[in-house]
Amino acid sequence: MNSISIIGAGIGGLALGNVLKQNNLDFTIYESAPEIKPVGAGIMMAINAMQTFDQLGLKEKIEKAGNKIHGISITDEKLKPITKTNILELENKYNSCNVAIHRAELQKILAENIGFEHIKLDHSLTQIKKKENYILNFENGIEVEGKIVFGADGIHSKIRNQIFETGNIRNAKQMCWRGLLDFDLPEEFHHQALEIWGKAKRFGFVKLSEKKIYWYALINHGKHKRYNSLAENFSDFNPLVLKILESTPKENIILNDIMDLSPIPKWYSENLCLIGDAAHATTPNMGQGACQAIEDSYIIGKLLETHQDFNTVFAEFQKIRRKKVDYVVNTSWKIGQISQWERGNSLRNFFMRLTPESINQKMVEKVIKLEM
Ligand SMILES: Cc1cc2nc3c(=O)[nH]c(=O)nc-3n(C[C@H](O)[C@H](O)[C@H](O)COP(=O)(O)OP(=O)(O)OC[C@H]3O[C@@H](n4cnc5c(N)ncnc54)[C@H](O)[C@@H]3O)c2cc1C
């Protein structure tokens, strides 16, 4: 019998594995995919995630594999600033930077540090049943009995569906393309993330490493013009955007819908707990989904240092995490809607330009400050 089973080797499950290992606990991670092969895209690890990686002894490795980002700017189509958030001060205060990194690099670092002997690939959970312990059935015919179970199986979590019988997934009605390419960005963007807001659409990009950049493009449902290329939808944007889009090989582009999970009342049941997207998937507008999954793991690790009973840890975990997670999910949803208004954008930009930078910094600090 397994003492601790984690379902899902995404960023959340892998972060939790690292934390349990640091607490000298035995665990097995079950992942449905035959290999750890995340979507081909970049990801931003904000200061809250990087503080956790610091405690795990992984901060330098992740910084080296990615690119430090010291500021985030929102601009209009012509790159005229709307807001700019300088995070150097917060970086000094929390002794960590934002890091943009290829998802594959991040997951490789997390998985290698755990050790592949703890990760069972090609194990897709089909059914979970509570008897005295949990009975886990996998698609490959294997059955495992587990005492403690973590559901880190993402927004469509089978554990959430079967144990909690809840989970309303909300579609933001925005299509999202993501791309990776080798590109020489102007130097002013080497350590800045940029998000450009247009009418019913937006475009963001960030440098990941010496040559690689990662971009994302969002368009409201019904507003995507079926031209030959995605770039033509952004013909009113600065030429740099068009150049990035036109230079991206088609096979390096992925397309998803943007969605989140309506807050569910409870993340835990007897000897079982959901973390990451399975518990509280958010839209990506604050770049915090994976960071919140990592923060979940951090808090569980901290609680395990002083409590042996997992059920006490789970109840405390939700008590500590709930307020911030709800804030992220709700604020991110609102930002997503405001950023892609179809009219009134000049007025929106005018008022946003009046907002003092200190207010944006306060909002960032609220999110990146760890709760324990
Ligand atoms: C466009 C976009 C951009 C984003 N940008 C950022 C960003 O910059 N920063 C940030 O912090 N977050 C970002 N996010 C959010 C982030 O990707 C997610 O929040 C994060 O990946 C959630 O991690 P997770 O481990 O909880 O879930 P997932 O990444 O979904 O991982 C779940 C894992 O469980 C496995 N699994 C699922 N079902 C089963 C099963 N039945 N049996 C076994 N295994 C199973 C899956 O294969 C997967 O490996 C972005 C999201 C999107 C869509």
Automatic annotation (TrEMBL):
Keywords of this entry: Monooxygenase, Oxidoreductase
GO MF: FAD binding; monooxygenase activity
Oxidoreductase found in the keyword field: yes
Domain of life: Bacteria
Stored InterPro entries: FAD-bd, FAD-dep_Monooxygenase_BioMet, FAD/NAD-bd_sf
Tagged with keyword Magnesium: no
Domain FAD-binding span(s) in chain numbering: 4-304
Pfam families for the chain: FAD_binding_3
Protein name: Monooxygenase
